[in-house]
Amino acid sequence: MISKLIFNESTVQTTISNKPAGKYLYLAIFTSGMVTLAVELSASRLLGNVFGSSNIVWANVIGLILLYLTAGYFIGGRWADRSPYPTTFYSILLWGAFLSALIPLVSRPVLVTAATAMAGAEATLASSSATQAIGSFISVLVLFSIPVTLLGCASPFAIRLALANDANLAHTGKISGRINAISTLGSLIGTYLPTIVLIPELGTVRTFLLFAGLLYTVAFIGLWQHQGRSALRWLWMPLVIGVLAYLVLSGPLRPPFPGATLLYEKESQYNYIQVQQDAAGNRYLYLNEGQGIHSQWSPDTYSDNHRTWSFFLTAPYFNAVPTSPTGVKSIAIVGLAGGTIARQYNSVYDSIPIDGIEIDGDILDAGARYFDLNSEMMPGLTTYAQDGRYMLNHLDKQYSLIAVDAYRPPYIPWHLTTVEFFQEIRNRLADNGVVAINVGRTNTDRRLVDALTATMSQVFPTIHAMDVPQSFNTILVATLQPTQSVNLAANLQNLPADAPELLRDSLTWGVQQLVPIHASDIIFTDDHAPVETLVDSLVLNLLLSTNANN
187 near 37, Cβ under 8 Å? Predict the structure, then answer.
């Protein structure tokens, strides 16, 4: 329908549009290439805010974008031969810009619905929520089909127009190579500009609109050059986008939970960040799809109601009896988030030196504002906005505990799961040092826990496991010295009478939640660490079993 409309209009305008395409054509193809890659990368963020950024999400985004571009190259070549006019070319770019701007606006209600469905899926993973989320995922990807196909038409069409200006066929290769080079250069800028600059500053939706607006401006000027005042009839497009943006963009992408207040919302370079506060004054950090609470702050207590973080307090007490609070000298946390683990250790050990590593600097800023993650409240804390493994290797220190909580439901970054990584951790541990890592599982599938047990066993003599109640989390603790699980109970009994209640309570729960370990045949290495494949299988089995039981 769009091709028919553009073709008919261009045919009518042949008397005006037969002027040859000039150097402005190269600006148009540069802009088209830039917008194409910007749309692809923004698509991953648009979906990642709700569905995460796993390999499956990336594969679907890249694969379908390539499919749409392939169709565009084929259609664009045939279209250029049927209607070899600059007006047709610029009309295609106008429609590509308009429909690209529509993507985040049309998909916004779909994504909000999916985000609401997925927010409650961690505890129940009900089939209806899973179906809704999958359906939304497919629906949003389908929205990219027409605009990306139109953008794919640009290169073959531009080559056809450029060749029409040069009757010497000996220059065909040079002209084709120049256009492809200019388009690729635009794509290079479209790769870095949104991810490094625009999305952190403007957000995903406004980044979409900015690039679409830029392409629209270039295409409109091109039409004006060939059609004159007749090009003004295309001004309805930005008016429609402006009205829709005003209607759609009010309110957060993921509404706060019932009874909660949204305190903070931002799209960073890495995450979609929310801080919510419930009626009791407790604050919670949610990232991306909102399936897990990444940090918690309570106004009157350091307790977390036996969530994942307090189990990290148990880790040093798997060492031989007696292990006392005075024996814990310093800790490092990979995946600091809002700093719940750091806050609890700071409370128990009175300003213990803590190195907290968090790749997302905006999360650290939110932590400082809403979770006491600052030097005033925690004098011993030093934060680093950097990749966990990279930063840990650049900190020339020895630690009593290294905690790894870089868990992004349902995945753990693969490079934080390998034998080589745990060897690097071992080199940073004091003589009585321990490492604790948060690992995902289901009630019936512990393959990831077993694989990490096998991997850590290549480096450490003893591994212990605690299942966090009412969750899909297991805390694995590896000790540098040979140890026994009974040490935890013995050290609990040996705590001094004035030991902090939070420590005593956490050790009590740790003893109750101890589970046997089982090492699998899978060992993760830097060369081969199929973590996401294993997790994808784990989640799929859970969804299938959930559907079978409903």
Answer: yes
CB of 399 closer than 8 Å to CB of 393: no
Q: What is the pTM of this model?
A: 0.79
d(CA 291, CA 440): 13
User: 348-360 burial, b if ≥16 CB within 10 A, otherwise e?
Assistant: bbeebbbbbbbbb
Residue 439: strand pairing partners: 474
Mean pLDDT of the chain: 85
For helices 24-51 and 55-82, the axis angle rounded to 10 degrees is: 150
Residue 369: partners with Cβ closer than 8 Å, 6 or more residues away: 264
Both structure tokens of 265: 């919302």
- Greatest C-alpha distance within the chain: 95
Does the pLDDT at position 394 exceed 70? yes
> Domains, the chain, ranges and CATH?
22-248 (1.20.1250), 304-549 (3.40.50.150)
Report the candidate in 473, 466, 475, 339 with the shortest Cα–Cα distance to residue 409: 473
Long-range pairs, 240-246, Cβ under 8 A, ≥24: 240/98, 241/98, 241/101, 241/102, 241/105, 241/209, 241/212, 244/102, 244/105, 245/105, 245/205, 245/209
Strand 354-357 and strand 381-384: the pairing is parallel
Helices marked H in 427-521: 447-456, 486-493, 501-512
